[in-house]
């Protein structure tokens, strides 16, 4: 099977995930700036973080399938696994923002991001196993330093929220910093895949 | 008419169905793990089941239309019938999860899955009638054992929830087991259609 | 401009409209069949009607743009006008179902359907004006009896709900019958456009 | 990379944004016209305005990417920036309509429109920098009078809502008038881009 419809379905699901999060933002009851910041301030910040996270997944998904020609049943299910993990992001985002960065919601949010990062690696591995070691994707991904670093940062965030300063908020803030660092790492474009794209498109 | 836009519209509807179910998940009021499990534990499990169910329909829909070249008005309406049945899944899923597996919601959930399974068979039949007995789809589907088994399991689930141990929960758990068995049966990829795909793509 | 992206955007909007209506269905508080019928019975019926209405618009939209090659700015705006009217259907559907067929919500629902029917005729006219009297669409549409009948039935429904038996529900039921008749008229496939499609595809 | 999937994803996000706003419309509790106007009157007007605003962005986005062949990572992120600003429109629209045109919500709504207008200019600039001064888009956009006028009107609206008659509503109405003027300016089709499209398609 070609990748067209898998990409279209994934685009649809990711577009919905990234957009329905805004429905979880509570509209302020009052009409002043302090109402806005009090009711929606935290929510807007966490929404921005989750928006960029889902945007990163769309971006890398987009680039990955650019290097894939055919998909099998295993790839379809690995892809659905990734979409399932990401579909929980609006739920965990809403819990973090309603609890205003309480410990448990932040841990669950981190585990959600971690599950998506692992599901992404699984998807990548399933595709590379199918396409073989000489596939353009395998050469482009290489050692996949970024994917491994993401998992490490997610783990570090979850662990620090779990262990450091459980009564205060120090561990939680370290966790949020880890998640923001992952975002910053990915927003810098992945030159390896771009280079491979450039090479594979050059003769066409 | 070509199948492109029918597939795009179905992808859109299925992507929305699979994603908006997460909006029905209630965000816990408290901030502890027990709040999460108490408020959303059942909901997350039923959401996972429904997500995989809709994912299976997207998967088989995807593979079926891969073997179809042209669609008629009858196919469009049979397809809308399937989408209508599936569009009720978020509603019945929410009722099962809010009632925490009460008898009536589970029966209605089973009837919903049953209606989708029948609508799928209707769609398949309408397409095969149009394409003729020599069509690639007809050869690929064959006796459609899985489709018939799904209907049988759905029926068995509904009947056991209706009749067995109406005061306790035994019948309900047999029903949920039937639904999970359908999921397991389908997640194993359908080698018949894959083989047909392989053959029809090989000479191209 | 080609029609591809206009069709994709319209497919997206129509897929969302047809699916989010299910979010307006209230999940029953209790766990019995009478709770289901009492809380959601009317809602499910009106949802079915609106689902088929939006499905009809997707269907005819699909067939219409199959005969169109290029779109102008005027077509884009006429299309957005149609989508706006249809985007209000979930709102008016929810009002009819929450009020359980009160007079005013039914009148507003009828006006909503009427506005969509008029917006469709406007879109068709804008396209035909652009494509000229010899265009395949113009020949396929002909006198557009169905479009005119839909407007007449919508008007008749609105007027009977407004004037007949304002204290009872007779006028409301005549109105709902009119809306159901429109649905039946359209679900019978439009042989004129199919014939034109057949002719335009035959030599290809 | 080609622009196809970026366009498909943007279409999906814009289709969802434009449609979910209708979910924020509160269904009237009563069943009379005065209930409708009291509960949803303001909401429907603001919804219409926001619908047309998002429609304009879809329209211009559509036309812009018609003149673009390849996208880079920077373009993907600039596009996500625009989508993020637009994804907040349902939230600010709901606040304006629930507060019935209070000063602060109108200012925030104006800032939201302003951020989208700036994000659009950033996206345009990133694409033109990549494509070079001889690109069809650069020639089509020219001095981009409309983009600059939009930013000016947005700014004027925000400033008048902030400074003029803070206790009454005069400044707020001037602001809403500014936003409506932007809409009117854009609904008139952009003949420069159409002309370029016409020229670039003519020899094809």
UniProtKB/TrEMBL annotation, chains A, B, C, D:
<keyword id="KW-0813">Transport</keyword>
<keyword id="KW-0812">Transmembrane</keyword>
<keyword id="KW-0630">Potassium</keyword>
<feature type="transmembrane region" description="Helical">
    <location>
        <begin position="107"/>
        <end position="128"/>
    </location>
</feature>
<keyword id="KW-1133">Transmembrane helix</keyword>
<feature type="transmembrane region" description="Helical">
    <location>
        <begin position="36"/>
        <end position="59"/>
    </location>
</feature>
<feature type="transmembrane region" description="Helical">
    <location>
        <begin position="71"/>
        <end position="95"/>
    </location>
</feature>
<comment type="similarity">
    <text>Belongs to the TMEM175 family.</text>
</comment>
<keyword id="KW-0406">Ion transport</keyword>
<keyword id="KW-0407">Ion channel</keyword>
<feature type="transmembrane region" description="Helical">
    <location>
        <begin position="170"/>
        <end position="188"/>
    </location>
</feature>
<keyword id="KW-0633">Potassium transport</keyword>
<protein>
    <submittedName>
        <fullName>TMEM175 family protein</fullName>
    </submittedName>
</protein>
<keyword id="KW-0631">Potassium channel</keyword>
<dbReference type="InterPro" id="IPR010617">
    <property type="entry name" value="TMEM175-like"/>
</dbReference>
<keyword id="KW-0472">Membrane</keyword>
<dbReference type="Pfam" id="PF06736">
    <property type="entry name" value="TMEM175"/>
</dbReference>
């Amino acid at each position: 099977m070609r990748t067209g419809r898998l990409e279209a379905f994934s685009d649809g699901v990711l577009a919905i995930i990234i957009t329905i999060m805004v429905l979880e933002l509570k509209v302020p009851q009052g009409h002043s700036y302090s109402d806005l910041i009090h009711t929606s301030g935290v929510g807007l910040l966490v929404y921005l973080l989750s928006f960029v996270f889902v945007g990163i997944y769309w971006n890398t998904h987009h680039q990955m399938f650019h290097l894939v020609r055919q998909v099998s049943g295993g790839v379809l299910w690995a892809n659905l696994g990734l979409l399932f993990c990401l579909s929980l992001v609006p739920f965990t985002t809403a819990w973090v923002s309603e609890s205003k960065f309480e410990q448990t919601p932040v841990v669950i949010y981190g585990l959600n991001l971690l599950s998506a990062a692992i599901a992404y690696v699984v998807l990548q591995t399933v595709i590379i196993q199918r396409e073989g070691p000489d596939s353009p994707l395998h050469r482009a991904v290489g050692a996949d330093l970024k994917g491994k670093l993401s998992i490490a940062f997610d783990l570090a965030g979850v662990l620090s929220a779990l262990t450091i300063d459980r009564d205060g908020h120090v561990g939680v803030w370290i966790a949020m910093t880890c998640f923001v660092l992952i975002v910053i790492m990915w927003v810098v474009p992945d030159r390896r895949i771009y280079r491979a794209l450039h090479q594979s498109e050059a003769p066409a």
